[in-house]
Task: structure prediction
Amino acid sequence: MEKMVREGQDPTSPVIQLKGVNKWYGNFHVLRDINLDVMRGEKIVICGPSGSGKSTLIRCINALEEHQEGQIIVDGTELNRDLKNIEKVRREVGMVFQQFNLFPHLTVLENCTLAPIWVRKASKKDAEKVAMEYLERVRIPDQADKYPGQLSGGQQQRVAIARSLCMNPEIMLFDEPTSALDPEMIKEVLDVMIELANEGMTMICVTHEMGFAKTVADRMIFMDQGQVVEEATPEVFFNNPESERTKEFLGQILIH
Amino acid sequence: MWVRLWRDPVWRAVFFQVLLILGVVAVVAWVINNTLTNLEHRGISTGFDFLSQSAGFGIIQTLVEYDESQSFGRTFLVGLLNTLLVSFLGVIFATILGFLIGVARLSSNWLLARLASTYIEIFRNIPLLLQIFFWYFAVLGVLPSPRQSINFFDAIFLNVRGISLPWPILDSGMEIVVWAGIASLVLAMGVAGLCRNYRRTKGRPLPHIKVIIASVIIGLPLLTAWLTNAHLQWEMPVLRGFNFSGGLVILPELAALWFALSIYTAAFIAEVVRSGIESVSKGQKEAAAALGLKPRRVLSLVVIPQAMRVIIPPLTNQYLNLIKNSSLATAIGYPDLVSVFAGTTLNQTGQAVEVIAMTMAVYLTISLTVSVLMNLYNRWVSLVER
Result:
């Protein structure tokens, strides 16, 4: 991806900034005072026990969830109650979901061209050309005219990644992309994600795939009870974590 | 040998099915035989000869030419058309109203959502017959007499005898203009199709397309009118004596039945639409929103197409209910099939079996036709699975 550093953009300034972000579901304090800067091209892996707020955190970055306090600034645009800003950020931020969420009434190709045509105002021909390129990159161009219901889970998730990439996003968010997959399909999805990381995409991944994290992450973030408990490079994080909570968590998931 | 057959589930199933068929045939044969014998004993003639006899009674609303001297066969046709008219009007209006209210019910606008659910709770919980009476007696029945009509622009008059509207008179020149109007609509639809295609392939709408389509629709008939020097004549309702004559009159019976049927059925359709929309998973909306689609597009491109396959089967039921409920017309004297044929005609001829059978066959035919059409549509929108 040649356009990772766009002209006129300062590569040294963070592309995503979270400043003192707080969020509540009713009385439940789900995000507590989150501060996070993500640099262009950086790969961040967030892990933590379930209910720790990691999914909520990345869903705040494209405003699928609203935060109540603090600032979230994505590529120079602040997420506030201005719908224009939200739309602008969503155009630049791709998201891959645990449950794939492909549109079952559209073919694979139509899934990939829907947003470029309606949001980017691309022509159908151009959109299809771009879509086929990305489908080739995720290695399923031959499935373009099938419907999502006819594909395996791994194939569906790769289509979902291609669908996001067709919008040519600056940043990709992955919300447990392999958690709903059968074990033999996890690798094919992770391979695509590693390729994407090697091309310089800015990525934030919520995942429990620690092998993947060791391979691609520039920074690991461990969350518990809505707080960032530990933030470190993979070497430090896996070999020498500071907090007891992190050690305990790693002990539980790395046992086998 | 017999014991072994008896233990074989396939043979056993066949045996019971043969037994069932014999039973059904026997019962039906007995009913028919019994009926024919009884009719003969009482001296009631059978057969469909009565259809060509003169009817001898008037009907207040006829879509085809009809007078008292015409046959019972003609009253059948008049009643059938009146049933189809109110059913068609009802289905259209109920669908529009139902979809609007169903979507409004899910709106994030608190007031709109509350109003929609209030509507649904009120209208689906009051008996339909009562609602027909409400519109007929309590709303349309208390309108002023024709002399004190509620008057809109001296053209539309609302009174206890119905709603009088101006109606165009077609002279020969105007006929061409009407055809030009139809042609312009077809042309405009063609242009709209082309431009949708253009939008899909080129990714941007044709410039000024709305203006072009509007001018085709308005311009072509006007141009023909100017060329043929035709003038549009409107037949205006005029007060003569105690009533209006001329123009188009919507009878209070039709209006009451139409309103009641559509408003009642719309409440159910709204619930069907709501459940359809809610059946689409939250993830679908999130995925569409995350791609940057605007809420309106999320609804029209992702949610509604998926909701339709859930909506269609119960929507078909609601259409069938509306059509069958239109037979309540007889309670306020709207001349539908049940009222003029299974009512008046039956009373005058006494040929209950034939009349009721014909009426039932009509409803069955209409309902099955609607079902088949809706099933075809459903198959067309259904999802392709593995």
Summary: The two ends of chain B are 46 Å apart (CA to CA). The mean pLDDT of chain B is 85. The longest strand of chain B covers residues 156-159.
